[in-house]
Amino acid sequence: MRSLDIYRRLLTFVKPYWLKIAFAMVSMAGFAAATSLMAVLVQPIIDGLVDQDVNELKILSFQLLGVFLARGFFDFWQEYLIRYAGQQAVADMRETLYDHLQTLSLAFFTKTPTGVLISRITNDVNLIQGSVSSAITGLLKQPLTIIGLAGVAFYRDWRLALIAFVVLPAAVIPIYKFSRKIRKVSIKGLQVMARLTNVLHETITGVRIVKAFNMEEYEKKRFREENARYVKQVMKRVRVRALSSPVMEIIGGIVVCFIIFLGSYYVAGGYSLGKLGSFLSALLLLYRPMKSLVQTNNMLQEGLAAGTRIFELLDEKPHVKAEDGGKPLTRVEHSIEFKHVHFMYENDWVLKDIHFTVRVGDVVALVGSSGGGKTTLVNLLPRFYDVTKGQILITGVDIQEFSVRSLRDQIGIVTQQTILFNDTARGNIAYGSFDRPEDEVVAAAKAANAHDFIMNLPEGYDTIIGEQGVKLSGGERQRVAIARAILKNPPILILDEATSSLDSESEQEVQKALEKLMTHRTVFVIAHRLSTIRKATKILVIQDGRIVEEGNHKELMALGGEYRRLHRMQFRDAEPIVIGRRGEEVA
User: Fold this and answer.
1) Are 115 and 200 in contact (CB under 8 A)?
2) Distance between alpha carbon 424 and the CA centroid of its chain, in Å?
3) Burial zone of 239 (CB within 10 Å; 0-12 exposed, 13-18 middle, 19+ buried)
């Protein structure tokens, strides 16, 4: 991405605050004028000292005080207004980035580590936060000051000014080379920081596993290695930035020394000492804004490096397009049909020619070995992914013609991996349905066998259950998730191992609640425990992305194929095994 394109896109975030920036520019102009006046006043002050004109010096001292006060006044307002505009612009950028993440498809989050995304929104944006404010200040305030002081220098002596300003541009060449190096090193540093953040996220969220397997020392070592890589990259950036400052020091020192050397001959020939002092003052005051420009350029390059990564993320397109113009899905009638559905993920065919029809009110069970494609199949229904080939029809209409929001409003999901938030028990149950009254929340909790243990929590339904529900047991977390689906009360339910974390007693009670909930609803159940799906209207046996068997429990047992093999494996210890004469197992 070209620097000019990044500048242009960054300015779109600054544009809403143009009025404050305009006032800041006025203040910068005032600051530049006050700084130039300081150099102008040096001549009469020196001449007054030489002539011992006390009255003139008194007047000049008050004038100089006024200049200092004006300079401080303008400096405050330009700094405050620019920082305000910069902070607001970066806050807008952070919100835009987060909003964009919410539009991206599940496939993006599957392939992108969480720590990397956290680093983009925090570290990368924070780097832009500093560079935006400094860049606006540096690119407006410093040039105005330089122009004002240059004007004073040329006004005092254009010949000396020409000599000085012929030498100073020599600093541009090394500064340009430093800029390219800083940007390259900054991008690498941000990449290393993203890896460091990812290690941190993984070890904190997976702390139970780390401790259970005694991997603390291993994780410490992994963090130390990534931390050392980051420090190494930071020091490369520091080294380049540190080199740029001495370049300006040396070039500025050469110019000043040369001007003093020439000035000594001028003064000896009758040149005004005050005039030379005023010229040197302008030249010395020029040094600070020029050095600040170099530092601004360094920060700008770091900001451009962060901007490159942020705009790469903003340019990421969702695989599932959720146009607002889609049809609203208000009712699910007749049937749901998977019509010759194929799905490819990262060049691998996960599902191949899936074809079946589900009547409204049917309970469809998906069984088969792990990795066969069961979860992927149900993820296509709410359009977490879109089919590669084929169609999914609801009441004869392709689901891609419906708006994604209205489609997902009709679907409730309880996943195998229980997802809860660091909120109250009530907040987690009512997630997505915050407007529902208290009695409905309690009724959903009772139906999921969650009410009793919630009431035993320190603050009942107002108890914060911790990140991922860490304050609850596995079974309790699962029941809260089930209550959330019950409260939504959707016509289509997806239960992905919904009772996997429950003990036998709780499972039986929740299974009864789910059976009530399933009435007059279309349900897709993924279950490894075949005992829980005996009453399913239809059972699909999925193997290597294909439906290899289809029917109800009785039909599939009679068929004697893959379903019966899976059933026999699960109930081998529970059912008597009859051995034939030749030693083979007999059903």
Assistant:
1) yes
2) 25
3) exposed
Q: First CA to last CA across the chain, in angstroms?
A: 67
Q: pLDDT higher for 461 or 203?
A: 461
Handedness of CA 71, 72, 74, 75 (dihedral sign): positive
Domains of the chain: which residue ranges?
3-314
CA separation for the pair 488, 448 (Å, rounded): 13
Question: In angstroms, rounded to a whole number, what is the distance separating the alpha carbons of residues 444 and 554?
Answer: 33
- CA-wise closest residue to 138 among 23, 297, 251: 297
pLDDT band at 353 (very low <50, low <70, confident <90, very high): very high
DSSP per-residue codes, 449-466: T-HHHHHTSTTGGG-B--
Which residues, listed in sequence order, are joined to residue 389 by a DSSP beta bridge? 342
- Residues 166-197 as b/e (b if ≥16 CB within 10 A, e otherwise) read eebeebeeeeeebbebbbebbbbbbbbbbbbb
| Dist CA 284 CA 31 (whole Å) | 16
pLDDT tens-digit profile of 384-436?
888 999 999 998 889 988 888 888 888 888 877 778 888 898 998 988 888 88
Residues 6 or more apart whose CB falls under 8 angstroms from that of 326 comprise 400, 401, 402, 403, 404, 406
Tell which CATH classification among 1.10.3720.10, 1.20.1560.10, 1.10.510.10, 3.40.50.1000 matches the domain 3-314: 1.20.1560.10
The pair of structure tokens assigned to 115 is 């720590």
Asked if residue 571 has pLDDT above 90, the reply is no
Four-point Cα dihedral 547, 111, 200, 216, nearest 10: 40
Question: Residues 125, 93: contact at Cβ < 8 Å?
Answer: yes
| Residue type present at position 329 | L
Q: Is the per-residue pLDDT at 236 higher than 90?
A: no
pLDDT digits (tens, 9 = 90+) for 152-199: 888 887 777 777 776 666 655 666 566 666 667 777 777 787 788 877
Whether 516 contacts 490, CB under 8 Å? no
Does residue 53 surpass a pLDDT of 80?
A: no
Taking the C-alpha atoms of residue 529 and residue 319, their distance in angstroms, rounded to an integer, is: 33
Residue 338 has pLDDT above 90, yes or no: yes
pLDDT band at 576 (very low <50, low <70, confident <90, very high): very low
Partner residues linked to 103 by β-bridges: none
> What is the residue whose two structure tokens read 């239809």?
538
